[in-house]
Amino acid sequence: MENLKVIIIGAGMGGLTSGIALSQAGYEVEIYDRVLDLRPAGAGISLWSNGVKVLNRLGLGREIAAIGGQMNRMEYRTLAGELLNDIDLMPLVEQVGQRPYPVSRTDLQQMLRQRLPVEVQLGHQCIGIEQDDQQVTAMFENGHVATGNVLIAADGIRSICRKYVLDTEIAPSYGGYVNWNGLVPANPDLAPPDTWAIYVGEHKRASLMPIAGDRFYFFFDVPMPKEDAAQGGDIRADLTRFFAGWAPPIQALIQSLDPATTNRVLIHDLGPLHQLVRGRVALLGDAAHATCPDLGQGGCQAVEDALVLSNYLKSTTISVTDALRRYETERVDRTAAVVAKARRRAEQIHGKDPAVTQQWYDQLSQEKPEDVRQAIAKVILGGPLR
Fold first, then answer.
1. Structural domain of 347
2. Considering only CA atoms, which of 50, 349, 314, 86 is closest in space to residue 192?
3. Dihedrals φ, ψ of 30, to 5°?
């Protein structure tokens, strides 16, 4: 299908990656976002090997390696700091053919924007979509109208476009916990520079991952009812209270973080949905399948979407709508499985059933590293690039 014009709504990770992939395929691309200043949501993201492989395929291998942290091991510890499990990740890398890269979201967004051959048009809030047999049109609050052959709705978990595709409103679901995240300078007193360190206890979690620039991406998880989560408070005081008695590295992390640049997020997920497409309009990324971050697969699924959608538009000659249906067929089961698995993982970690969480703690100290690697590999190898 030659001379397609693609309208992309949303300039997050999925929208930008789609713009790159479709531009490389020779299509005309316009990309819009409602915000006036494109700032990433969250401080860091763990890109597992399936997501990195997509970026490699798009010619971004050198760039993603330059901003990715060298994460060679992962370790689980009790809240007191006792080692539960030490997992060498290099056999995983050899099995799946690519190392994972924890990255700064800002670095990732800048990298993708630099490789996008068009400018993102900011301050464009999509308020309506219309289509016929030949084209699709997006209407914006500022009066602008964009018409093309395909529209990709990559406008996030609170997507405006999703209602058009599904013809009903689907609200995100609260995941049961609050997440604080940010970046701090790397320091061996916090964690080894090549290790993902995870402390668990009291149904909570504290974690450090290495990223480029001698920094750690950190996060804290605390389960709480949604009405309590909505209140918020002083970040350092809250974390000091929630993680009182935890190991010295966690206390040092709380003292070293910058509250002004630390994000506090109520975790939500969406779906699984069993429809991603309506005619010439396709949902992509969090608009279609936002996950709890407990598998580290949210961003990876968005870039998988981008690759699969681009491939079908390039390789299918029947029609645009046929290509989008094929995209939907391939992606709906994969993403539904990841959303469901991430939700089960979130509930297991955060004490929805305290007995289940205690069983997980007990299992951590006995689990073979090989079993942990195989569980991660299974998710990675379910993607479009084996």
1. 5-172+269-380
2. 86
3. -125, 135
pLDDT at residue 386 above 90?
A: no
Q: Check whether 2 has a pLDDT greater than 80.
A: no
How confident is the model over 136-194, as pLDDT tens digits?
A: 999 999 999 999 999 999 999 999 999 999 999 999 999 999 999 999 999 999 999 99
Q: Is residue 233 part of a domain?
A: no
Q: What is the pLDDT of residue 3?
A: 85
288-344 per-position pLDDT tens digit: 999 999 999 999 999 999 999 999 999 988 999 999 999 999 999 999 999 999 999
Pick from 119, 151, 174, 107: nearest CA to 350: 174
C-alpha–C-alpha distance, residues 317 and 323, integer Å: 8
Tokens of 105: 């979201």
pLDDT band at 1 (very low <50, low <70, confident <90, very high): low
- The Cα 296–Cα 292 span in angstroms is 8
Amino acid letter for position 315: S
Both tokens of 130, joined, read 């219309």
For residues 337-355, one letter each, b for 16 or more C-beta atoms within 10 angstroms of the residue's C-beta and e for the rest, the string is ebbebbbebbbbbbbbeee
Q: How many structural domains does the chain have?
A: 1
CA dist., res. 166 & res. 271, Å (int): 12
User: What residue has token string 């997006």?
Assistant: 138
- CATH number of the domain enclosing 35: 3.50.50.60
Q: Please check whether residue 238 lies inside any domain of the structure.
A: no
Give the model's confidence band at 361: pLDDT under 50 very low, under 70 low, under 90 confident, else very high.
very high
Task: Tell me, yes or no, whether 228 lies in a domain.
Answer: no
On whether residue 89 sits in a domain, the answer given is: yes
Give the whole-angstrom CA distance, residue 329 versus residue 309.
11
Copy the structure tokens of residue 268: 């939500």
Cα 217 → chain centroid: 14
Report whether 312 contacts 324 (CB < 8 A).
yes
Two structure tokens written together for 63: 């760039």
* pTM metric for this prediction: 0.95
Distance separating alpha carbons of residues 232 and 230, to the nearest angstrom: 6
